[in-house]
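quick one, 100 residues, struct below
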Amino acid sequence: MINIGLYYKVKKGSEAEFESIFNDVVSHLKKNVQGFQDAKIYRKVGEDEKTTEYMLYSEWSDLDAFREFTNSDAFRNTTSHGKSIIEGRPYHKIFKEIME
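---
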């Protein structure tokens, strides 16, 4: 299993839309994308409680499943729309579970 942390800064006033899109995408992935297991959304907390920074934490069966999704039309459509509510360029980090 691998985990992907996707990091976004959302334009102020677009937080509810971003969160709604996340929920719709997760629902779609669970029903339609082999290898996707689950995802959670986290909002940065700290001194500035009005921050618009998010981390999307997703679980995949393997790296190939995640890469296949990122090459899909569904991914391109979601990221294309997201450009209107995202500040800057999002980035991701990939983590692999260590089994002992």
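The chain has one domain: 2-96.
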